[in-house]
Amino acid sequence: MHAHDVAIRDESIKLGQFIKLASLVATGGEAKEAIAEGQVTVNGEVDTRRGRTLRHGDLVCVADACARVTSAAEDEDDYFDEATADDDFDPEKWRNL
């Protein structure tokens, strides 16, 4: 059984949210049903708590489909700071044109 990695923005995510994000189910309603019926395992154990907190490294399976929680890499952030950019670009010069 191969698990695909699914990156999350924050340090944790709820089980119901994660299985939908990971496309292990199609809708939130399906997530609720699958969890309540005991079809979802977390790290190999059945868990029926939709609000269970998952963290980096947790393995979640629904039937034969599995996904692992991973943290989004910090370098994937689109944030750009002119003050710390390592180049000779002068924003003031271009703003005044």
From TrEMBL:
Residue numbers spanned by region Disordered: 75-97
Record has RNA-binding as a keyword: yes
Gene3D superfamilies: RNA-binding S4 domain
UniProt entry keywords in alphabetical sequence: RNA-binding
Pfam family, one: S4_2
GO terms assigned for molecular function: RNA binding
The keyword Oxidoreductase belongs to this UniProt entry's keyword annotation: no
Biased amino acid composition, Acidic residues: 75-90
Protein name (database record): RNA-binding S4 domain-containing protein
Native source organism of the sequence: Corynebacterium marinum
